[in-house]
Structure formats: C-alpha cells, structure tokens
Design brief:
With 292 residues, the protein is α/β, with parallel strands linked by helices. 42% of the residues lie in helices and 17% in strands.
Length: 292
C-alpha cells in the first residue's frame, strides 16, 4: 500500500498523529471516518499523488494516533480539536493552505476545519456527511432506528467499550481482505482490537452529541459559513438522504453554490469505488465542475 508514501508519527504537543504522505503539487488532506484508519484511502491517495501532495492521517483517538486524557465535556474528541490537529499537521509539513476531504466522521472534521480555519482551507469535500446539528435536530423514530449506534456509542451510563471489546470482530463485521485490500484490512483489524482506539471512537461520538452540536449552533447564530468551494460526494447505496435532499440541507452553510456528485457505491466510497472518487476529487480540485 501507498507506494512512494512516507509513514510518519508527528508530535503535535497535545497528540501524536500517525500520518502517511507523498506526491507533489497542491496539498490535499484525506480524513477517514468511523471505524476506519487512514489506510481506507490506499487506492485513492496514489491517484491523487500524481498531481498533489497528499496527506492521510489517523484522526486523534483512531488507528495509530493518540488521544489526550478525557475531558468532562468530551472536548478532547471534539471536531474542533481534530480540525486543529489537521492545521498543525499541515503546518508541520510546510503547508499553510490546503484542500481537505473528509468521509463520515472525517467529513465533520473537514467541515469544522473549513469553518474554524477559513484562511487555511482552499477546498472542502464532504463524503456522506452533514453538519451534526442537522442530524440531531431532525432525529425521529426512522433516524434513531437506522442510526442507533450514535446513541449507543455516545451514551456514558453503560459505556459501549465493554460490549465492543468483548468481541471486536463480531461487533464490527468488517469486509474480507479481498474486498477492502489485505493491508487495509490488517491495519483496521489491529486498530479495532486496541481498547484505547475503541474508547477514542466512542469519545468521538460523545463529543458529537454535545460539544460538536454546540459549535454548529454557535456558527449558525453568528451566520458563519464555509467560504471555499465545496463538493458533496454522496453514496448511491447509503442513506444520507434520510432527512431529505442533503444538498438542500448543506446550502445554508455554504457561501458558494454546492457541487454535488453521486458515487455508485455503498458507504465506504474510497474502498468500493476508488476510481470514481479519485476522478471526482481531481476534477473538483482542478476547478472543473463534476456532473450531478
């Protein structure tokens, strides 16, 4: 995996991020979702690296990245903290302005990076994600039934870690190595068998139900928007449209019209449709408008 990429551990002070980077050209950061690690991008990153400097870190608390001590409000796992990690990592690598691509939970981090650091983010790509407040305000029986894991992972009365760590393979049911790539499979399975990583992922969801929502609400009251060009990649065989048209939900958060493309895959687009994902990203980053 990641031929001609460097694997590094970068000490940012509060956390140490495991990150892989390579290529040359304008910089782009790839942020994975739950429960993946950065290796989910193993087929997309080399395509981008032909014309871009590509950085793929593990989010704090995931994979090989560390997590600070828990805070009472779970702020150590907030998307604001994760977005700050991205900015510090890119500064360490010599880049003060970059594109950011995020999938699933990584989409929340990418969005927060664009909101909190508008001078640093040149382009935003969200893959199967909405601002967390938009989900929570629309919660009904249909959403709760389909996305029940948000509340299971996010509650603290009977922490989910004990249930998950009792049998991680049964809980996560990850695809076979041939389906997702043997190296990617091995990296993910190792992470999921690490109790510290399981805790970090649960803390991500706990922050999502509280402090992350507060940050979104404050932005909305202040009428802050994402200022850079934004692309939404939506999986055809997933349920991002559970609340209705996701493009319409995104529109008020963006200062520029949203570009929107449907990828014919299940939820894990980078593994199931790496060619169309890479093509869409390259078109968007070059200034071309992908078709709907």
């Amino acid at each position: 995996m990641f031929d001609r990429f460097r694997l590094d551990r970068v000490d940012l002070g509060e956390v140490t991020l495991r990150a892989r980077y390579g290529g040359a050209g304008s910089p782009v950061v790839l942020l994975h979702g739950h429960p993946r690690t950065h290796t989910t991008w193993h087929e997309v990153a080399p395509e981008l690296a032909e014309s871009h400097f590509v950085v793929a870190p593990d989010l704090r608390g995931y994979g090989g990245s560390t997590l600070p001590q828990d805070a009472p409000d779970h702020a150590q796992s907030s998307k604001r903290a994760m977005a700050r990690d991205v900015v510090l990592l890119m500064s360490h690598l010599g880049h003060d302005r970059f594109a950011v691509v995020g999938h699933d939970r990584g989409a929340l981090v990418a969005f927060r990076a664009a909101m909190d650091h508008p001078d640093a983010v040149s382009h935003l790509v969200v893959m199967d994600g909405l601002p967390v407040v938009e989900h929570l305000e629309r919660t009904d029986a249909v959403f709760a039934r389909a996305w029940w894991h948000w509340w299971f992972l996010g509650q603290t009365d009977k922490p989910a870690e004990r249930v998950i760590c009792a049998d991680p393979d049964a809980w996560y049911s990850i695809p076979e190595p041939a389906e997702m790539g043997s190296g990617n499979h091995a990296d993910l399975r190792e992470a999921l068998h690490n109790p510290a990583v399981v805790h970090g992922m649960c803390e991500d969801y706990r922050a999502g139900l509280g402090i992350d929502r507060e940050h979104d609400e404050a932005d909305r009251v202040a009428r802050r928007q994402v200022m850079c060009p934004t692309l939404l990649l939506e999986s055809a065989d997933d349920d991002l449209d559970i609340h209705g048209d996701p493009a319409a939900i995104w529109a008020p958060w963006l200062a520029q019209p949203l570009q929107h493309r449907v990828i014919h895959s299940g939820h894990h687009q980078a593994e199931q449709a790496p060619g169309p994902v890479a093509e869409s990203l390259l078109e968007f980053l070059s200034g071309s408008k992908p078709p709907h």
